[in-house]
Write a structure and sequence with these properties.
Blueprint lengths: L1 H27 L8 H18 L7 H15 L1 H9 L5 H14 L1 H6 L12 H15 L11 H9 L7 H12 L4 H15 L1 H10 L4 H12 L2 H8 L3 H18 L1 H4 L8 H14 L4 H20 L5 H18 L1 H5 L1 H13 L31 H26 L3 H20 L2 H27 L4 H29 L5 H13 L6 E3 L6 H4 L5 E3 L26 H4 L4 E5 L11 E6 L3 E6 L8 E4 L8 H12 L5 E6 L4 E4 L4 E2 L4 E3 L2 E3 L4 E9 L3 E11 L3 E5 L2 E6 L11 E2 L3 E5 L2 E9 L12 E10 L6 E5 L14 E5 L2
Parallel strand pairs: 1-2, 1-3
Antiparallel strand pairs: 3-5, 4-5, 6-21, 7-20, 7-21, 8-19, 9-12, 10-11, 11-19, 12-18, 13-16, 13-17, 13-19, 14-15, 14-18
Helix pairs in contact: 1-2, 1-3, 1-10, 2-3, 2-9, 2-16, 3-9, 5-10, 5-12, 7-9, 9-10, 10-14, 11-12, 11-14, 12-23, 13-24, 14-16, 14-17, 14-22, 14-23, 16-18, 17-22, 21-23, 21-24, 22-23, 23-24
């Protein structure tokens, strides 16, 4: 799967996009530069996938439609392909920079050596895109049949059913379905590939400002993966990544307007398709950048008509052709324009900052941000150095702007000015969330202008002095981006592969037994269990009647769910956790894996008439037991059922002794850098025992008992950093008595995620294989025998 998603899939994507680009080129009159073919192909495939999924019966055929378009492009553009192949040496820098951008963008996954996706837990919007892409391929853009009682149906309806932009998702789903790949593992390669296509238009623009060869390649790469853009790619902001590519492609088309504006009428098809793709991917908000790109060729056309160089009729025909392509290419957006406008307005006015703890700083758009995430402020000298490099970038931007004007590149100058103005306007008059998007989409343009400043230094009349300055400035800007990206690579959290493969197996094993209640807060389960109508108690959209008061993302406590409500769910999926409350007596353990347990409702099981949960110490107070017993005695034949939890030795973080550099942050110890954690525990008898660690561990740590190594653990995370992950148990045979447990984190290394999350909350030791409650039946008259006992819960069950 790793080879299929990271190597085969991008090659297939490249063929699809180049083929589609060739088709657009042929239809438009054969004027597109080779560097723009992949990006224009992305736009064309988005338009095709939007149309096929809008026509609901054709949605499952989307992969075939994409393939057909690509094959048609290669067939009709075969001469162009042969010409490009013969002259590949002329394009070696373009090919190299695209491949390098893909490797950089996908580096955390590539060097992890397993199928996964990056910056896990940072932004769960990627779960929505996986779920939405899958749904759109299977059902198209129709939502009337959704079951809105569960979380799955509500998510799809409340996003895609209300005008949420889906252009990126239909291309993602259609291309991944072509190879039958799980979307969860194809998601990051898709983001990396699309971002890499931005090197094409960036190359065209770099050449326009006077750079060539390796200089143009470095400029294109710097514009494609500046720190802020790289951070957004890592968290899977697929809408912004596609929009970024379309903005740069529009810029390249603007400076090439002489090739298509008054050439063949069909020449306007290419820019119209790119504009349609941007609108489909980002929504009507993309219109700000689209308008910035249209003003330049539009004003040229109007001027030419006004002075009599061109006919008004010719202009109207081009407007009609371009407008028709724009309407068809983004048809679903125009049909639901009111919904799209409402979504854009909601995003622009929302007070919800998403994953932003504070508004981003404008300086972050200048390429360098020496922190592990764009969400963090660099510490100490890193902040000073970030601002120093930004200051150099500002000087380069000023020089670059002057050079572009001096060169007479009026179209390029106007496009840059209008594009940055569009971003600045959104940043000033919108919320922090939109401001961040505006900074991301402006960053590549600023980087290109900065490299125009480097080109100005290289072209100076005094080369001996200023060419050295050009090399130094280029080294500083490129080096700042490289170090910034490396720091994010090092700090990224990667999704746990085995956990999600186990969830995927449950989707197949229990197909048809819906709806399913899922007790973890992990929105990626909505994709992995998509055929089971999943409901999550603390999701943004919980099942109907199950909104709990602990709030979005909180740990789930089944004891707080009314027993009558649970009766609607034939299955409950819970994580394996010896400290968690188990489902009530109406459910039996049907299946247990490494990470999850599946509980099935017993046929004909009665609904409890009373349920007493015992959180915390789990000691049953007599007054509470008496209350449940009274309820049971009021129903003839009723009985009490008590659940005894596994015998466990729990060691909380307050009992840990650890290296001075590590800090205690309730409820866990943050293991920053190398160090060791030590604690002791007492066992009542000899035998085989399971050691459970609870926390979030991305970097590798070693667990030892009495100096004997049990295992090295890494990449053990759950869907929400606020809820500790219970890791698979480590089995060990131990004698009775006191034992010493150590958790050791080694020195820093170059592995992806080595600087990621490392928090230990609790250690639990249980008898081997004993992590399920034992049920006891007690007559209500003997309720006193339950007083003071260590229990999970007590229920009153009718006859």
């Amino acid at each position: 799967m790793f080879v299929a998603t990271t190597l085969v899939y991008p090659c297939v994507l490249a063929l699809l996009c180049v083929g589609a680009g060739l088709l657009v080129d042929r239809v438009s009159g054969g004027w597109l530069p080779g560097a723009l073919l992949p990006a224009v192909g992305v736009a064309a495939l988005i338009a095709v996938s939007q149309l096929s999924t809008y026509i609901t019966p054709a949605a499952p055929a989307t992969p075939y439609a994409l393939t057909f378009v690509a094959v048609a492009g290669f067939a009709l553009g075969w001469r162009r392909v042969r010409a490009l192949a013969r002259g590949w040496r002329l394009y070696r820098w373009q090919l190299a920079v695209g491949a390098l951008a893909y490797i950089i963008a996908l580096a955390p996954v590539l060097f992890a050596g397993r199928p996964t996706f990056s910056s896990y837990q940072s932004l769960t919007d990627s779960a929505l895109h996986m779920m939405g892409a899958d749904y759109l391929m299977r059902h198209g853009q129709t939502y009337a049949h959704l079951d809105l009682l569960g979380s799955y149906g509500q998510y799809i309806h409340n996003y895609y059913g209300t005008g949420y932009p889906s252009g990126a998702d239909t291309l993602f789903g259609g291309s991944a379905f072509t190879l039958g790949l799980p979307l969860i593992w194809a998601f990051q390669p898709f983001n990396a590939f699309v971002l890499a296509t931005a090197t094409g238009p960036a190359w065209v623009l770099a050449r326009r400002i006077g750079l060539a060869g390796g200089w143009a390649a470095i400029a294109a790469l710097s514009a494609t993966v500046p720190a802020l853009v790289y951070g957004y790619e890592l968290v899977g902001s697929v809408k912004e990544i596609v929009a970024l590519v379309m903005i740069l492609t529009l810029g390249a088309l603007v400076v090439l307007h002489a090739r298509w504006l008054w050439g063949r009428t069909a020449g306007v098809i290419a820019p119209a398709i790119v504009l349609a793709a941007g609108i489909s991917a980002l929504g009507v908000g993309f219109g700000a950048w689209g308008l910035a790109a249209l003003i330049v060729p539009g004003s040229v056309a109007v001027r030419d008509v006004a002075v009599g160089r061109r006919s008004a009729g010719g202009l109207l025909v081009r407007v009609a052709v371009g407008g028709g392509v724009l309407i068809v290419g983004a048809l679903s957006t125009w049909v639901n324009l009111a919904g799209s406008l409402n979504v854009a307005q909601s995003i622009a006015s929302t007070s919800n900052p998403g994953n932003l703890h504070a508004p981003l700083r404008p300086v972050q758009a200048l390429g360098t941000w020496l922190a592990g995430s764009y969400l963090e402020v660099p510490s100490g000298g890193h902040l000073t150095l970030s601002y120093a490099i930004a200051a150099i970038a500002v000087v380069a931007v000023v020089l670059g702007a002057l050079r572009i004007v001096y060169m007479g590149e009026r179209a390029l100058a106007w496009w840059i000015g209008l594009t940055l103005a569009a971003g600045a306007g959104l940043a000033v008059y919108s919320t922090a969330w939109v401001n961040a998007k505006a900074l991301v989409l402006s960053s590549p343009v600023l980087m290109l202008v900065a490299w125009a400043g480097i080109a100005a230094l290289r072209a100076s009349a005094n080369p001996r002095a200023l060419r050295i300055a050009a090399v130094l400035v280029a080294a500083v800007l490129a080096g700042g981006i490289a170090v910034s990206d490396a720091m994010q690579y090092h700090a990224t959290d990667l999704a746990p592969t085995a956990r999600y493969e186990e969830l995927a197996s449950l989707d197949t094993r229990f197909a048809g037994q819906r709806p399913v209640l899922f007790t973890s807060f992990d929105e990626y389960a909505l994709y992995e269990l998509r055929d089971l109508d999943v409901g999550g108690l603390e999701f943004t959209y919980p099942p109907a009647g199950l909104r709990l008061t602990r709030g979005h993302g909180s740990p789930v406590d089944l004891d707080r769910v009314p027993p009558a409500v649970l009766g609607a769910y034939p299955l409950i999926v819970t994580p394996r956790d010896p400290t968690a409350s188990e489902p009530p007596s109406a459910y039996r353990l049907e299946w247990q894996g490494t990470y999850y347990q599946v509980w099935q409702r017993r046929p004909g099981a009665p609904v409890a008439i009373a349920h007493l949960g015992l959180p915390g110490t789990r000691v049953a107070p007599c007054a509470s037991v008496a209350r449940v017993a009274r309820i049971a005695r009021s129903h003839a034949g009723a009985r009490l059922i008590a659940a005894s939890p596994p015998r466990a030795v729990a060691i909380g973080a307050a009992r840990f002794r650890h290296s001075p550099a590590w800090t205690y942050t309730h409820p866990g110890v943050v293991m920053t850098g190398a160090g060791e954690l030590r604690t002791t525990f007492e066992l009542p008898r000899a035998g085989a025992w399971d050691v459970w660690l609870q926390g979030e561990l991305m970097p590798s740590v070693t667990v030892s008992v009495d100096g004997r190594k049990l295992a090295s653990i890494d990449g053990q995370l759950e869907g929400n950093p606020h809820n500790p992950d219970t890791m698979p148990p480590l089995r060990v045979s131990l004698p009775a008595g006191t034992h010493r447990l150590t958790v050791t984190r080694g020195g820093s290394n170059l592995a992806p995620g080595d600087g990621g999350t490392a928090i230990l909350h609790e250690i639990v030791v249980t008898p081997a294989g004993d992590d399920v409650d034992t049920l006891h039946v007690t007559p209500p008259s003997r309720w006193r025998g339950l007083c003071g006992r260590r229990l999970d819960w007590i229920e009153a069950i009718p006859k």
